[in-house]
Amino acid sequence: MTTVLRAACLIDGTGRPPLPDPAIVVEGGRIKSVLGGGDTPGPGLSGPGVDVLEFPGKTVLPGMIDAHVHLVFDPALKDREKIRVRVLEESDTRLALRALRNAQTALRAGVTTLRDCGDRGFVTLAVRDAIADGLVVGPRLLVSGPPITTTAGHLHYVGFQADSPEEIRRATRVLIGAGVDSLKIMATGGMMTRGTNPSTSQYTVEELRAAVDEAHRVGRRVVAHAHGTPGIRNAVRAGVDTIAHCKWQAEVSGRDYEPRLRKELSLGSHWWKPAVRDLDLAVIEEMIERGINVDLTFSGVRRTLIPHDGMKAEEQESCRAQLRELHHHYRVVKEAGVKVIVSSDAGPGGTKFEDFALGPMGVVEAGIMDAMEALVAVTRLPAEAVGLEDEVGTVEPGKCADLVVVDGDPLEDLRSLRRVEFVMLAGRPVISGGTTVSVR
After folding, report:
1. Is 331 a residue whose pLDDT tops 80?
2. What pLDDT, on a 0 to 100 scale, did the predictor assign at position 78?
């Protein structure tokens, strides 16, 4: 079966200028050719056996990629203790169903590839395989299983607790043996786990390197959760592939940090000031040399600061100023030459899977990227970060036909990413008008 998609415009994910009046020819689940400017698909690509899909006034994009989600968490919950209790009390079956629902929600938002960065009990592996086998509809999944963390460390209640290079090496081998696609390790504490300190390191360079060596030996990539500069520094020196969050928070003692964190969280979603930053330019240079990318997770309270039409002009400008201040360190890292991808961290803390578009919208409002750069940061760059650059991330001949059609021009208004009208996954229409239309 041959399918030809026609639209007003194609933004192909490479960063090249948009292609007007494209005709994208799909055969066997892959993109056969990409024509533009009113070119016709050619002999044999019209008539019987050819399905021509017309999208006048619309824009075609590569399927978007969210390289950092937590499918087993319920985004309706914001309280950290309720989140912990929910994920611990639910059965594996119910967690798997929740993960599937969240993945399908992301698919309806135009996200055709997800990387899960920490589940409980390997339930996301079953969801991944069910989708791949055509039992259910869902996006392409890459999963890391339970995260590796210290005893009582960040997300210890769902993770592998390991406290030495030997224990970390064994945990990594168990995860690889279970069939994970990547590894997630907690280089610092995190906001989701009371009693941990996001500004300090949980692991030494030697301990982190044990996970990296084992993972790289069998072709798996390692994502390091790191808020504070000490953890970022250790993770980079250990040779991880991605630094998630990468906030460059200056180290604050555990005795002082927890009361301050509680105060910040109690002041409401519209109050936020960045922690003191401790940018290490030598570490940034090492990131560039090693090819380590930064995973900017535009989640939680940051999303509430994105200006919208319901705000007065002065309120919109105030939000932009806060976003610019909050994300200054990301501008420094990007301008230095580090590859920055935009993810959601959806699942915890009220960060919804259907709102992935708020990430690219937010980084533009924060002055980190322009609209085209933001689109590349949710297509081509994350495809490279997760190791699927030969398959997805751009609309080019030979690539897998993961395509999204949105109403409007994202380069003029990124809010059009929230108006997804059609999704094709590996050459098969799976979403039309926000409704699931196909399993295989």
Report:
1. yes
2. 83
Cα–Cα distance for residue pair 218/249, rounded to 1 Å: 33
Q: In what order do the strands lie in the sheet with 64-69?
A: 64-69, 111-116, 140-143
pLDDT at residue number 44: 56
Residue 410 has a pLDDT of 98
What the block records as the tokens of 264 is 């910040």
CA–CA distance, 366 with 382 (Å, rounded to integer): 20
Q: What is the pLDDT averaged over residues 400-407?
A: 98
Q: What is the DSSP string of 383-413?
A: HHHHT-TTTSSS--TTSB--EEEEES-TTT-
- Which domain, by its residues, includes 23? 2-62+393-436
Return the CATH number at 411: 2.30.40.10
On whether both 223 and 304 belong to a single domain, the answer is yes
Q: Quick one: how far is CA 122 from the chain centroid? A: 19
Are 270 and 370 contained in the same domain? yes
Per-residue pLDDT of 417-436, as tens digits, reads 999 999 999 999 999 976 77
Distance separating alpha carbons of residues 185 and 201, to the nearest angstrom: 12
Region 150-164: mean pLDDT is 97
Tens digit of pLDDT for each residue in 277-286? 899 999 999 9
Residue appearing with tokens 């040779």: 239
Q: Is residue 15 within 8 Å of 63, Cβ to Cβ?
A: no
CATH code for position 129: 3.20.20.140
